[in-house]
Amino acid sequence: MSSDASPDAPVAGAAQPRRVRTALARHRQLTGFTGALGWFTLDRLPLVLLAGLLVVSLVAADAYAGAGLAVGLGPFEPVWASYDRGSALILVGASLAGLWLAGALPMAHPVPPAWLAERAASTLGLAGWLWLGVACSGVLLGLAAKGPYLLRAPEYLAFAGPPPLVSLANLIAPVSLIAAGIVSVRRIWLGGTLAVVMTVILLAGATRLLAGALVLVIIGRLLGGVRVGPQTWGLAASSAALMLPIPLMLRAQDMHGLIPYSSATWQFMNSDGYLAKVAASVAENVGFTVPLLVHVADLGVISRDDMIIQLNPMPAGSAGWDGIVGQMRVHYYIPYSMLGEFAHFGPLILLSALFAWGALQRLSIQLVADPDSRLALFFLTGQLGVGLISVLYVCQYNTRAATRALSMMLITALAFHVMRAVLDPGPRAGRHALPR
Question: I need a surface site. Which of 1, 27, 87, 321 has the fewest CB within 10 A?
């Protein structure tokens, strides 16, 4: 079994097959970097993103609080009021240490970016029907979850579907947007229509994923073999910034659902000072992760039993989540964060939790990176999509949300091996080796 060494470390010829050494060399060629940056692999992507968000949030929180902007923010104000820079440095440091240890953990099958880049061209031909199925399933699950509350709803978070279906719809939403982007490479109208319908469903739910919809579609087109230039990425980033304040504004409306939300969104975007609200919202949302971490860590209402319930992946009723969900929030709109809940028990527990989360993220991604399977890229994209949404859950949602996402990734890895055995029978001598 090979060790999870840096792609730039010397590799003994007898220790790894030629295909592995060739892939690592290709990884260096594609990235153009050596040393620390050459250490980056796709299985470490969620860890790197979470670490980056923590650092940016710490800097943004200091600037935001120092400028006196965290005043008059309604339900968010108590969180900002309890922000302490010393506590933040300790807890962010513990978080980064846990992520670093998980990233440095030796694992047998690291997945360099070359693995993905060299398979982008085959994405449509080998599994096009699967991408279309994922895009359609995301739309159908979103519609089923909202039901009659799609157009008009009595309150925010009103769903007609059962909780397991709602959870599945939330988890598959980002993956379905990526899939719609892939479909659009060859069927622009079909893929574009699916992406628009999925975005409309996100608008009806007033979810912050709405801000990242265009980014996810562009990622899908990239995976479909389309070259994406800096101008397109700039457009996607601008779209995300412009859309970011909209979900929070919609949640405060008297009426909910797509019809009242559409009208409120149009009025909001045409109101005076909209761009100033966008700038404040970006700073507030980016910086909010660390103040929420500090605030929840200082609370005295989280017990070990609460954490055991949240780590149980069973449905909410049988796990006991329905009995405590109301108390695991700062406000109706502001759940505790996984970071803060584990930090409540001390920096060492927080470090250990992020180490375990990071290690399981890497394992889930590596388990589907089989170069001998026609389904590998399909499943790998799904794992990366759920892994990225899991980063948001860790930062600003309860531990239960992160547990559900991680459970979905492990189930997906199991499903991959079952489908591989059925659709790709035969010798597996080269499985999990890196690409030629």
Answer: 1
The amino acid at residue 137 is S
SS3 content of the chain, % helix, strand, coil (to 5): 70, 0, 25
Integer CA distances (angstroms), 352 to 29, 240, 294, 357, in order: 35, 33, 17, 9
Strand 329-331 to 334-335 pairing: antiparallel
Coil, strand or helix at 334: strand
Quick one: DSSP state of residue 327?
Answer: G
The CA dihedral of 152, 156, 162, 167, to the nearest 10 degrees, is 120
Cα–Cα distances in angstroms (integers) from residue 37 to residues 1, 31, 63, 159, in the given order: 24, 8, 28, 44
Strand partners, 161: none
CA dist 33 and 342 (Å) reads 36
**Each residue's pLDDT tens digit, 71-109:** 555 677 788 888 888 999 999 999 999 999 999 998 878
Where on the phi/psi map is residue 387: left (φ > 0), alpha (ψ -120 to 50), or beta?
A: alpha
What pLDDT digit, counting tens, does each position of 112-168 carry? Answer: 777 666 665 555 555 577 788 889 999 999 999 999 999 999 988 889 988 888 888
Rounded to whole angstroms, the Cα distance separating 149 from 354 reads 37
How wide is the angle at C-alpha 360 spanned by C-alphas 296 and 319, nearest 5°?
A: 60
d(CA 235, CA 242): 11
Residues comprising the chain, all counted = 436
Cα–Cα dist 24/113, whole Å: 10
The token duo for 139 is 């739309």
**DSSP SS3 for 415:** helix
CA proximity to 350, closest of 392, 307, 313, 384: 307
**Integer distance in angstroms from the first to the last C-alpha of the chain?**
18
CB 16 within 8 A of CB 9: no
3-class SS at 10? coil
C-alpha to C-alpha distance for 296 and 287, rounded to whole angstroms: 15
Under a CB-based contact definition with an 8 Å cutoff, are residues 205 and 146 in contact?
A: yes
What's the CA gap between 341 and 349, in Å, rounded?
10
Considering only CA atoms, give the Rg of the chain: 22
* Whether the Cβ atoms of residue 109 and residue 431 lie closer than 8 Å to each other: no
